[in-house]
Every structure is written in structure tokens, then in C-alpha cells.
Amino acid sequence: HKKYRRFETVRLTDRTWPDQEINKAPDWCSVDLRDGNQALVNPMSVAQKTRMFNLLVKLGFKEIEVGFPSASQPDFDFVRKLIEEDRIPDDVTIQVLTQAREALIKRTYEALAGVKRANVHVYNSTSIVQREQVFNMSRDEIKAIATQGARWVRDYAAQYPATAWEFQYSPESFTGTEIDYAVEVCDAVIAEWKPENGQKIVINLPATVEMSSPNVYADQIEYFCRHLKQRDKIRISLHTHNDRGCGVAAAELGVMAGADRVEGTLIGNGERTGNMDIVTMGMNLYSQGIDPELDFSNIPEIIDVVEYCTELPVAARHPWAGELVYTAFSGSHQDAIRKSVNYHTEHQQTHWNVAYLPIDPRDIGREYEAVIRINSQSGKGGVALVLERDFGIELPKWMHAPLSQQVQQAAETQGVELSAATIKTIYEQSLVNVP
Ligand code: KIV
Ligand code: ZN
Question: What is the ipTM of this complex?
Fold first, then answer.
């Protein structure tokens, strides 16, 4: 298998994370307006960015990466707009990305002039591939870029004393970096920033390209947390991408392995296969009874805004949010849902425990109408339920089987889903034929 390079990385044998579970939401940081935006066919307009920013605030995000102002004039202008129009709530920290180059760092602070609080996020690539093939630099040279960048970030911040600054460093392509070297670089950056004097610092550990399974990423996170010198004074952040389809799983295991914070996007927009999806991880927590500390009570609104801003459709089977994820067409599923929902109501259960429905769709702003839909695969339980639900018609037991046969026949002939109105018509016609 010469084509596939196996990357040797840390594998803990004394890991602690399998014993743990997430019992509290991590700090969330949305990167929709930066990583999400930079991956779009058409970058967001000012109107789209503003709508996304307002939604993120409404959902309860306290940290929002709003762009890469030194690399893009529209991003620069958007940061200025947020500040000059006083659109940033006092409890929200905006974050901006910059490379570790002096001119770019200087420009970043110009974009942020006058902001009350902000996080300046500096990064450089540290992986073997990038060092050897992109930069042609030694480990010491790459480390020097990081520490020099950290000094510029610190020194320019001093020119704007009225702002509450936070600093963030990402060893980009962390998962392709020798772990002890990644710790060494981050220790050196942290030493420049002096958390011991109260400086707020985030170290963000990206799976820039998802190259390994989530358990390997979690081992790397646990090892990093154990070896970082001033771990207790630093927030450790995760930034996972979804190349192998496991961006959310990696973030969840990474939190179990000791991280404090997660960066991601709504519905998983972002480079290539996207960033980890905060809606999915948040809803995973919710379904386990843990408050995600983000408001997902109106997911249809989230989908509207995401589709408007990204100009990409949300898949019908997207976890928790897709149009079809709370819908059953098949007869046996419909029957089980109907019985289970009735049981839930009759017994006034406090915990949702309904067959085939992992949560109550109403919790996220969806109606029960979409749960049972009728096509040629549907059964008698579904037909009876639609008549009762939409028209208050209580179908006598003896009619269940013959009517559902007629409905099934009609659906097979038409080859499409049948509306509730069509089912009612079939029911009324069948009454005419009753002997
Ligand atoms: O994926 C990545 O590595 C990034 C960094 C800039 C944090 O987006
Ligand atoms: Zn990224």
C-alpha cells in the first residue's frame, strides 16, 4: 500500500478518556465567518455576514471568529463595521485570524482598533509535510516563526491598551506534527505571552486535515494536555475538520480527553468536507440530557440562515437538522412511533423515550406533521394516524386494513408520496362503497 502513508503518532496505553463522558458543554467558538466563509464558491456578502453574525449571537455564541482581516479587504471592512456600528454585545469576544508576519499582525490590530474585547489568533504550520515540502525549513526555524509572531502579537496589543485582549495560537496541521515538538513550540509561544501575569490564552490544536481516527486525535490531545507546562492557565481548544467524516466524533473524544473549547461551524460548512458541525455535537449533548448552552430550539431558522449565507443546500439526512430525519415512511416504523407517542402521552413521561425518534422534534422547532408521511411503503397505522392528526377522523378498526390497501394501491400507481388531502379523498370514496 505504497500510496497510503501511515503517520506514526502518539498512542497512549494509559489514556484516561475512555472512562469519561462529557457532562458539561465545552466553550464554543464559531468559525463560520472565517473557515466557513473561506471555503465558499461565493464568499459571503456584507448582508450575508451580518445575518450570520446576528444568528450566532442569538444562538448564544460568546466567541466568534469573524474573519482574516489582514488577508482580505472585505473581512477588514466587516470587522470595522461591527466595531463602528457597535454590533458586538459586551459578553461576546470577536476573534480574528492572522499569519505570524509583522505586516499582517499590524494590519490586524488596525482592523480591531476601538474594539472592547478581541482575540487575536495567530498561526503557522508545524507539520513535517509543511516544514519539508512547503517551507523547506528546520524545526528551529518554524518554532522561531511562532515565537516571533507571538512577540509581535503581544507588542502591538500594547499599543491599544483600552482593549481587553486575548491571544490564541494554532500550530496549524497539529495532527501531522511530532507531538513533543508541538508541545515545545506551544510552550515557547506561551512563554512569550506570560499567562502567569493574567493574560488570557487559547492554544488551538487543529486537525487541519483529518488524517487519523478520532481515538488517535484524542490520544494526541490527552498527551498534549499532560505535557504542556502551564496547562492549568491555558484554554485548550479543538479545531477538527471532517475529511474522514468523523469531525464531530474527534471533537467529542477530544473534549473527553481534556480539552476545554471547540471551534466549528453551523451544519459543518468549511474547507473541503467542512469543519466539525457544532449543531450536531450540541444536539448530541442535548439528547444525552446535557445543556449545550446554545439555543437550538429553532433549527429551521438555522437552516434558512445557513442556506442563505453559504448558498449551499442542507442535506435532507443531515444529523438532527435534515428535512427527513424525523420522518417515517415505512409501515412498521410508523406503527411503532404511533404506539410509542401515545404511550408517552398517556403515561405523562417526563423523559422522551419514543421508538425511532431520538428527540421530540418539537424541541428544535419541528412539527409532528412531518413525522408520518405516506407513500407505497406505508402501513395501516400511518394512514389512521394521518386521518386523525390532520382531520380529527377516528378510523374504526375494521377499516384500517382495507383503507390502507387502497392507499397503498394509489401510491403504487402514482409512484409518489400521497398528501393528507389525497388520503382523505380515498377514505371518503371508500365510505361511498361501504355496503
Ligand atoms: O484548519 C486549520 O488548521 C485552521 C487554522 C488556521 C486554525 O483553520
Ligand atoms: Zn480549519
Answer: 0.99
